[in-house]
Specification:
single chain, alpha+beta, Immunoglobulin-like, 2 helices, 2 domains, three-stranded antiparallel β-sheet, Intracell_prot_inh_BsuPI, Intracellular proteinase inhibitor BsuPI domain-containing protein, 9 strands, signal, elongated, IPI, about 20% helix
């Protein structure tokens, strides 16, 4: 009986030692999940704008700057958010307040070098003249943003000057 207890004890010790050693390796946050490298330098997101009459035209460009196909996942069918904030840090416009989006996951695969052009027109007739900070954010899922070396890759802020309506 003593021999049996010793064997069970030794087996238990080896099992605990083996499990304890593997847990540290699996929890190493420096190693990306699935062995993938970070997405630094693989995505370009640029924003341009023009003001004309009573309209703010916003152009967004998403480019896969890598040498392999990449997929962006969006938690809903909303691909981007645009906000305008005045000098008093009051939000005067939010794109999503004007629209409804289906709450279904949307995926878009981009081939190497592929660029997608998104455009939006924002009426400015009800926005007081003045200087605004326009922030444009691509609404990709959090796991994609967290995998980037620069978490601000898909967010751009631009100063916009809106004139009096004529």
């Amino acid at each position: 009986m003593k021999t049996w207890n010793v064997l069970v004890g030794i087996s238990l010790a080896f099992t605990l030692a083996a499990c304890g050693g593997q847990a540290d390796e699996e929890e190493n946050q420096d190693i990306p999940a699935g062995g993938d490298s970070t997405m630094s330098g693989e995505w370009l997101f640029t924003v341009d704008h023009q003001l004309s009459d009573d309209m703010l035209y916003v152009e967004m460009y998403i480019e896969n700057d890598s040498e392999e196909a990449q997929t962006l996942t969006f938690p809903s069918q909303q691909l981007y958010e645009i906000t305008l904030v005045n000098a008093q840090e009051e939000e005067v416009f939010r794109y999503s307040n004007e629209h409804m989006f289906a709450q279904s996951v949307t995926e878009k695969t981009y081939e190497p070098g592929e660029t997608q052009d998104l455009r939006e027109e924002i009426p400015t007739e009800d926005i007081p003249a003045g200087s605004y900070m326009m922030t444009v954010e691509l609404m990709v899922d959090d796991s994609t943003v967290e995998s980037l070396s620069d978490p601000g890759t898909f967010t751009k802020s631009i100063e916009v000057e809106i004139s009096e309506s004529e």
